[in-house]
Specification:
- The chain has one domain.
- It has 3 helices and 2 strands.
- The N and C termini lie far apart (54 Å).
- The protein has a two-stranded antiparallel sheet.
- 22% of the residues are buried.
- By secondary structure, it is mostly helical.
Length: 117
């Protein structure tokens, strides 16, 4: 049991923020799945590519930004167990928060751009 003390949830800084971000990402994923009928079959997601059909993805892939952000939150939270410096732990959590926030904003902008509301 001594090995599990290293993975004590109390070691994660900004626990409420991490929980809020996880709920936000999961809510975005669920909302996309619920709104699939009001979204066209293909949506622009990869704006960094040249203007062409390469920017388009199937509508269910709009969950991709939130899934990646959720993975980053999980990985950064996991990394906080192995770091000693509190500042680095906080930076990891805040970076995960920023990533999730940008992922949600991007997803909603795409939905409101192409959605049928």
């Amino acid at each position: 049991m001594a090995g599990f003390n290293k993975f004590d949830i109390r070691l994660i800084p900004f626990k409420k923020l991490v929980l809020a971000v996880v709920i936000l990402d999961l809510s975005t994923i669920i909302l996309i799945l619920v709104l699939l009928g009001k979204i066209p079959p293909q949506v622009p997601l990869f704006y960094g590519l040249p203007v062409s059909e390469d920017q388009l993805v199937k509508a269910p892939l709009l969950i991709l930004p939130s899934l990646i952000a959720l993975l980053l939150v999980f990985l950064n939270s996991l990394l906080t167990f192995f770091l000693k410096d509190d500042f680095l732990k906080k930076v990891l959590i805040m970076a995960a928060f920023g990533t999730s926030l940008f992922a949600v904003i991007t997803t909603f902008k795409i939905i409101f751009l192409v959605g049928n509301f």
